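Journal club prep, notes for RB
We'll compare a predicted complex against what the paper describes. Inputs for the glutathione case:
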Amino acid sequence: MIVLHHLNNSRSQRILWLLEELNLEYQVKPYQRDSVTNLAPNTLTLIHPLGKSPIITDGEVTVAESGAIIEYLIGTYLNDKKDNQLRDPERGTEEHRQYTYWLHFAEGTLMPPFVAKLVLDKVRVSAKPFFVKMIANKIVDQLMASYYGPIIAKNMDYIESHLSHNKWFAGDELSGADIQMSFPLEAAVARGTTQEFPNITKFVETIHARPAYQAALEKGGKYDYV
Ligand SMILES: N[C@@H](CCC(=O)N[C@@H](CS)C(=O)NCC(=O)O)C(=O)O
């Protein structure tokens, strides 16, 4: 039996969605973030030494890292079920090149500046006392204006441009690339930063309307980015 080690409000939500798209039987083992640090509980390190979610176990097999989990689940189970709408683009095709590109882009290029912004926003809020906060805010503003801000804007423009010509990230049908790209784009929409990006907003609305996505929400419980 596949077990998804699922941390609330995390990248794990996309694996829940994939499991539903693939029509697989699975169990969800829930883990709660610490209310102060927002970190995962230490019990997750019993499943994988890094203790980050998502992780799946499938019998003797343990897979961590969202992209690796997506490749494992699609590679192992997609052909077992004929009645799903998710496609695995054929190797050597342009769709497959797009598929691997976006699968890696999500965690390799898009997430790092998003996470940096999240951390810097926390510094802004939590720096104390007042004069330290003033200095901290100045440094954060400078880092955002000169480095992370332009990188995020460039990435978002690039994604928006891709989605203005394509419904999905790789080819004409839903693929693992869409699953992988869902989390950062949901987070961006939920934070209200996508007003100038109608195609990104539409993509997120489209995936949220899918029956498999709704089923995943029911299984996983409260998710702040929907
Ligand atoms: N690149 C990894 C990132 C995993 C990751 O950082 N997960 C976050 C949740 S979104 C986590 O477990 N955070 C809690 C912690 O670091 O303690 C992946 O895509 O699986």
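Talking point for the session: The chain has two domains: 2-88+214-220, 94-210.
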